[in-house]
Amino acid sequence: MKALARTIRKLWRHPWQNWGLLLHAAALTACIRGGLSATSLSRMTQALRRVATGLPQWSAATPRYRLRAAWAAHAVGRRFLPERPCLTQALVLQYLLLRRGDDAAELHIGVRKDENTGLQAHAWVERSGQVLIGGTGAPDTYERFEDLGAKLEAANTPRQAS
Questions:
Q1: Which run of H or of E encompasses 135?
Q2: What is the C-alpha to C-alpha distance for residues 11 and 18, in angstroms, rounded to an integer?
Q3: What is the distance, to the nearest Å, from the Cα of residue 144 to the centroid of all Cα atoms in its chain?
Q4: With 60 as the cut, is the pLDDT of residue 161 above it?
Q5: Within 10 Å of residue 72's Cβ, how many Cβ atoms?
Q6: CA 137/CA 122 separation, integer angstroms
Q7: In 3D, which of 106, 152, 102, 114 has the Cα closest to residue 133?
Q8: Which of 2, 27, 90, 110 has a CA between 20 and 30 Å from the CA of residue 120?
Q9: Is 33 helix (H, G, I), strand (E, B) or coil?
C-alpha cells in the first residue's frame, strides 16, 4: 500500500502532458499485450504500423518527445506487466513514435544463451544507433535475429576451394 501511495505522489508532480502520455501508453499496453496473445508478432507489427500511419498525423517527434514516450512505455510496462514486458514496451514506443511520423525507430529482437536459464530473448528499440528502450547494453548482450540469420546462412554456405 505504501508503494502505491508513493507512486501516486510521484505521478502527481508530473506535468499534465505526462499524464496523457501515461494513459495513452496504458491503453496501448493493454491492447498490444492482448493482441500478442491472439496473433503473431508480424501481424501485430503490421496492424500497429497501419493504424499509426493511417490516422491523422500528430505533431513531429522531437528528441524530448522520444525520451518522454520511452519513459511512459517503460513506466507503464514495468508496473502492469510483471513478467517479460520488453516486447510490449518496445511495440508501445514504436507506435507512439510512428504516430508522430518517426519511422526511423527500429524494433530489434535478440537472443542470448544463459548458463542458468538457457536461451533468453529480449526486445528493444533503436533510433540512429541509440537505444531508446530496452537497455543500452542490449545490442552488445543479445545476438539480433537479423545478425543471427546472416551468420547461420554464412555458416551453411559451402566454401569454395581456392
A1: none
A2: 9
A3: 14
A4: no
A5: 25
A6: 11
A7: 106
A8: 27
A9: helix
Cβ contacts of 135 within 8 Å, gap of 6 or more: 122, 124, 141
pLDDT in tens, 109-151: 999 988 888 889 999 999 999 999 999 899 999 988 875 556 5
Q: Where are the alpha helices (DSSP H) in 13-144?
A: 16-38, 41-54, 63-80, 86-99, 138-141
Q: Is the pLDDT of residue 17 over 60?
A: yes
Q: Say whether pLDDT at 97 is over 90.
A: yes
CA 113 from centre of chain: 21
Question: Which grid coordinates belong to 74?
Answer: 517503460
Give me the sign of the Cα torsion angle 149, 41, 32, 112: negative
Q: How many residues does the chain have?
A: 162
